[in-house]
Write a structure and sequence with these properties.
This protein is an alpha+beta fold. It has 22 helices and 22 strands. Helices cover 48% and strands 15% of the residues. Strand 5 (166-173) and strand 6 (176-182) form a beta hairpin.
């Protein structure tokens, strides 16, 4: 869990203490050589700790906690590689019994035996490979004298069937669901799994049962067993996340101490980037699992809960497998040695991800449900207008969104929706002025400066609604410099520049990148030398967005050469581009637009009063602003728009009829869904008043690369039209293919390339060693 309360912290600590007493890797190696790979003494100790009873009400002998606590235990057991069937024979069995225990004395008695560890029970419901829905069950229970007889195929894929003391068998009695307790099946045929455990096929065909073997019958039985299966899928997702995190931790530790060519191999950038990718996948898998847990706990329709579980299991299974495979590769020769625990991670991931539906099955079922219910979870989009004078910043978030959406729909020029090029002020001046007059131009500025004074959460809502309605992005560098001046500027700078930004009198651009100082910005060479009350600037800036339409530039320039860190001796400077000696040359991008430019400075005289902050301290000024803006790099709106285009093209081409595209499409939908889940976790932290750290960089990496994957599919689906510039029109459906494809190449480079973001994550999050000698 992201934040643990006192009870959850105690539970986590108890599981970790259990691992210290009973290291799981040694136990796995011992058990895999036994005829029955199960240690009852360890299982009883887990039962005595009360872990199976976290979901059981106190009135039934449990702890009366919730799903969050159960998922926490499952995750920690996965991280420890514990071989015990906590999910299968603990949570799953308990969830099937609890709803029935109040009305069935036998069910309650069995529940008590399961909770105290006396009885190891297994739920036997599945009847064939791939028959993974409760409604696939065909076994019949028929009356036989005073008792019962079961007819139908054997129950299969029952975890640790040869160790179980009995089985909860699900069958149909004249079409009515029923649950039976069987301690002596006709036969058990077991198959070893790659992680050293086993599953069994339990034969009960023709078995004569006593009358009291039936624990319960009726619709409640189906609901209880179905819930148990879905809970097990959710808990196993958390367990798989734990396995993946264990593999990552082991890899970081091993590569940090393994020396080759005189350096730890973790200092090699190629390995660092792969470990960062492993970390990102773990973060996304945990975000997806946490999102499913939220849906499990909140009042929601059953289909929403199940769909969230499918998404979480698909992501967790694929992540555990992918991270473990990469871990073996990065361990080199030791990765294939049994004495190294990393192989146990892969084996556990293989066995656990196959149980209850592998990632391919989960994605397919997720997509099936998606096609029935619609791709986007609907929220209240009904129009809402508030009286003049109402401070929208004080509205609840959902009302703020509706008010904003209503006003945008009524005021944005419809002919300018979803413009295909980056807008200059001349292109969008009417919208810019409408926002300014409304007082909604500067969402992040305080109200005293003419802004909206929005919280970080509402700023994101603002950006989302602007994007959702297809509003062109206004030239917004002026808003950026305005906020920065409010943090570091002089009163004179604030009084002069902010009103001119709000009025549209002055347009701004950013002067950071240079020909040899793009991602390595601290290596910039544009110099500013002091001459009395002026700084004389010489040098060149490049990739200056909207430079040809800008009046002023905020720039980083080198004012002194300091030994040591390259970031020292840099100054943040405001430059009037109409000054003598400034030359702006447009750069045409891949889409044929002059969105960027080079800017040359030849003895340009800039007043010292235009320095923001202190001379030589410009790096800290620029960074203070970038830290606050990181969250906006990770908004999922860009991906959602591209995915909507893919939806339209898939409909026009009937692409979803092809199995290979269906799975790729489902994966992309899950990629965007998990980006949103991760984004919401960060937003939750903002709502709680936290300052975001460097870990937020992974949203930018995942979001921009997902955007590229979606547009790759757009080009493929366009077929013969894949190279045309205009919209692809098939039937009555038009899709913006080429503009999206070319546009998607850029975000992964700008704002600090994704490779640089990986470097940041490697150093600041994984604490991997430097490659310097």
């Amino acid at each position: 869990m992201t934040h643990l309360d006192e009870t959850q912290t105690m539970l986590r600590d108890s599981v970790q203490a259990f691992h210290e007493r009973h290291p799981a890797p040694a136990r796995v190696r011992r058990l895999r050589d036994q005829a029955i790979p199960f240690d009852r003494s360890v299982w009883r100790e887990m039962a005595e700790a009360g872990w199976s009873g976290v979901l059981v009400p106190e009135s039934l002998g449990g702890h009366g906690l919730g799903a969050a606590e159960a998922m926490l235990i499952a995750s920690e057991l996965g991280r420890g590689l514990a071989p015990e069937p906590y999910v299968a024979c603990g949570l799953m069995v308990v969830q099937a019994l609890v709803p029935l225990a109040t009305g069935s004395a036998p069910a309650r008695a069995l529940l008590e035996q399961v909770l105290d560890g006396r009885t190891l029970a297994a739920l036997a419901w599945q009847e064939a490979a791939g028959a993974l829905d409760i409604d696939d069950v065909r076994m019949r229970a028929v009356r036989s004298g005073e008792g019962w007889r079961l007819e139908g195929a054997a129950k299969c894929f029952v975890p640790l069937a040869d160790a179980a003391d009995g089985f909860l068998v699900y069958a149909l009695e004249d079409g009515i669901p029923a649950l039976f307790w069987i301690t002596q099946p006709a036969a058990i045929r077991t198959t070893r799994t790659v992680d050293g455990l086993d599953f069994g096929e339990v034969e009960v065909e023709g078995l004569a049962l006593a009358a009291d073997a039936r624990l319960a019958s009726g619709p409640a039985v189906r609901d209880a067993v179905a819930q148990a299966i879905e809970l097990a899928r959710l808990a196993s997702a958390f367990e798989l996340v734990g396995v993946a995190e264990r593999a990552l931790e082991a890899t970081v530790a091993y590569t940090s101490q393994r020396v080759q060519f005189g350096k730890p191999i973790a200092s090699f950038q190629a390995l660092q980037h792969r470990m960062v990718d492993m970390w990102m996948l773990c973060q996304l898998a945990r975000a997806s699992a946490e999102n499913a847990l939220l849906d499990w706990a909140r009042p929601a329709d059953e289909s929403t809960r199940i769909q969230s579980v499918r998404a979480a299991r698909a992501r967790a299974g694929a992540t555990a497998l992918g991270v473990s495979k990469t871990a073996i590769q990065l361990h080199g020769g030791m990765g294939i040695a049994d004495e190294t625990d990393i192989g146990l991670c892969l084996k556990r991931a293989l066995a656990l991800s196959a149980w209850l539906g592998n990632p391919l099955w989960q994605r397919a079922r997720f997509l099936d449900q998606l096609m029935k219910s619609g791709r986007v979870r609907q929220s209240d989009n009904s129009p809402l207008v508030v009286p003049e004078g109402v401070d929208v910043a004080e509205l609840p978030d959902d009302e703020f969104r509706r008010v904003l959406a209503t006003w945008i729909a009524a005021n944005y020029p419809p002919e300018k929706r979803f413009m295909k090029k980056r807008a200059y002020y001349a292109d969008i001046s009417d919208w810019y002025q409408a926002l300014s007059k409304k007082g909604w131009l500067a969402p992040a500025w305080p109200k005293t400066a003419g802004g909206m004074g929005l919280s970080a959460t509402k700023q994101v809502i603002y950006a989302e609604e602007i994007a959702r309605h297809g509003c062109a992005r206004i030239p917004d560098h002026g808003l950026a410099i305005g906020k920065l001046l409010l943090m570091h500027g002089t009163p004179a700078q604030i009084d002069y520049h902010l009103p001119r930004v709000l009025s549209g009198e002055i347009m701004w651009c950013q002067g950071y990148s240079e020909p040899n100082a793009g991602s390595d910005l601290a290596s910039l060479r544009t110099r500013a030398e002091r001459d009395g009350d002026f700084l004389v600037v010489n040098g060149q800036k490049t990739w200056t967005t909207l430079g040809p339409g800008a009046d002023w530039m905020f720039a980083l320039v080198r004012t002194s050469k300091v030994d040591g860190a390259k970031q020292r001796g840099i100054t943040f400077l405001l430059i009037d581009l109409k000054s003598p000696g400034v030359k702006v040359r447009p750069i045409v991008n891949l889409k044929g637009e002059g969105e960027f430019s080079e800017v040359f400075f030849d003895n340009v005289r800039v007043p010292v009063s235009n320095v923001v902050g202190r001379i030589d301290d410009g790096w800290s000024v620029a960074n203070s602003f970038l830290r606050e803006e990181r969250i906006f790099f990770g908004t999922p709106r860009q991906c959602e728009y591209a995915l909507a285009q893919l939806d339209r093209l898939a409909e026009a081409t009937n692409a979803l009829a092809a199995g290979d595209f269906r799975d790729r499409y489902a994966q992309l939908v899950l990629d965007v869904r998990d980006l949103k889940a991760a984004f919401e976790l960060f937003m939750g932290r903002l709502r709680g008043g936290e300052e975001l750290g460097p870990e937020v960089s992974y949203l930018k990496v995942w979001g921009t690369e997902t955007y590229q994957r979606i547009t790759d599919e757009l080009v493929q689906l366009a077929g013969d039209h894949g190279g045309q510039v205009d919209d692809v029109v098939i039937g009555d459906i038009a899709a913006d293919v080429m503009n999206q494809y070319l546009d998607s190449r850029m975000p992964a480079i700008f704002g600090g390339s994704n490779e640089i973001q990986r470097n940041i994550l490697a150093k600041q999050i994984l604490a991997l060693p430097s490659g310097r000698a």
